[in-house]
Amino acid sequence: MLPLILIIDDEEKLQGLLKRIISLEGFDVVTANSLASGMQLLEKKGIDVVLCDVKLPDGNGIDFTKTIKEKFPDIEVILLTAYGNITGGVQAIKNGAFDYIVKGDDNDKIIPLLNRAVEKVQLKTKVNRLQTQLDKKYGFDTIIGDSPAIKAQIELAKKVAPTEAPVLLTGETGTGKEVFAQSIHYNSARKDHSFVALNCSALSKEIIESELFGYRAGAFTGAAKDKKGLIAEANGGTLFLDEIGEMPVDLQPKLLRFLEDGIYYRVGDSTPAKADVRLIAATNRDLKKEIEGGNFRSDLFYRIAVFSMQLPSLRERKKDILLLAEHFLRKYQAKAAKKITSISKEAIQALMDHPWPGNIRELKNVIERAVILEDSNVLTIHSLPYELQQAVVTSCSENPSAVFHLSTIEKQHIRKVLDYTHGNKAEAARLLDIGLATLYRKIEEYGMKQ
């Protein structure tokens, strides 16, 4: 769609000339001869840029610019005046005008100005679209769960997000701590600045320090040039320290000093640096026990735990297992270009019975693997890991009413043999010591699509 330009001018000849020139440059143009009719067009049409005379029968273009920017902040305004003066130009820019030019003297500037104004509008549109995508991706509504345990934590996150309070997220590995951290950041006043993450368990003390604070050239072997640290990268935004319980004890005072006054030193530098950062930390450890064991400083704990949240394990929110599994199924079947529309009852039972020591991360990996293996349009138990399949078999054998139901065991065994033969039914029938027709009948009976 071509950019749409609105010309507001009561001089018909000039208005017609401008419309012709601008149209020939590939723009769509609408016109108005007063501020009132111009406002009607602004309210009805998707105007990109306004080219407006300063003196009009029903008002002043400079004042009208302020009205436009208040109601339509993404529209750019270029003012045209018969007699330019510094005072008018200054006020026009203060009111939000893109530029202020003199009729006749600056006619050759109009098209280049329009191009630049349209580029600015398009850039703002793109930024707004990306921001909308971020808001959707990291909104609290995207955190999946219906259980009271997760809903309670979402409500806490919504309350703390607009504040500047440090947040400590605790819970088992894989419970979604980084997802919560990102949602808190992108729903805060800092969302237009960086969200920077560091996993403290993955690096040595020396590397954590240099990554976090940065370093000067020559600070250590291999430091050929200055490096900005993650604190500097997160300035104005949020620093997420995952597994903070793994941070070396002798590095903790440096982090505490920074959190207290915003001052820090790069490795090898005696000149202090300053940054404004909100901290969100996460750990799967009991930090109070770590304090008792001398592995974590109590003063740092109380500084980062101003607002603590305990994320529930998947075992504590069993009603969310199916919701999450279906979400991951939709995600990975689309990526794998498959049409797996549902999950079988047996597979659902296996998912519900599993203890999920790896929590949501483990469930996500299980579903991704199952989608890769599944050949039918239903996610079956046979595509799940062996330990989940066996749990269902054990459950059946422990059920007195199903103790004589050998069909489940037979189905499992046929599936294993078919997996072993990579789907070769003739070979599978030979190994099972049954006829090929019998194998086909059992595959049909058990709904085992190949």
Question: How would you describe this structure to a colleague?
Answer:
With 450 residues, this protein is of the alpha/beta class. The protein folds into three domains: 4-131, Response regulator (Rossmann fold, 3-Layer(aba) Sandwich), CATH 3.40.50.2300; 140-312, Rossmann fold (3-Layer(aba) Sandwich), CATH 3.40.50; 315-445, Helicase, Ruva Protein, domain 3, CATH 1.10.8. Helices cover 48% and strands 14% of the residues. It is built from 19 helices and 18 strands. The strands form six sheets. It has a five-stranded parallel sheet with strand order 2-1-3-6-7, sandwiched between helices. A five-stranded parallel sheet has the order 9-12-15-8-16, sandwiched between helices. The protein is flat, with a radius of gyration of 32 Å.
Question: How are the elements arranged and paired?
Answer:
Layout: E1 4-8, H1 12-24, E2 28-32, H2 35-44, E3 49-53, E4 55-56, E5 59-60, H3 61-71, E6 76-81, H4 86-94, E7 99-102, H5 110-138, H6 148-160, E8 167-170, H7 177-186, E9 195-199, H8 205-213, E10 214-215, E11 227-228, H9 230-233, E12 238-242, H10 252-261, E13 263-264, E14 273-274, E15 278-283, H11 287-292, H12 298-304, E16 307-310, H13 321-335, E17 342-343, H14 345-353, H15 359-373, E18 378-379, H16 386-397, H17 407-420, H18 425-432, H19 436-445
Parallel strand pairs: 1-2, 1-3, 3-6, 6-7, 8-15, 8-16, 9-12, 12-15, 17-18
Antiparallel strand pairs: 4-5, 10-11, 13-14
Helix pairs in contact: 13-15, 14-16, 17-18, 18-19
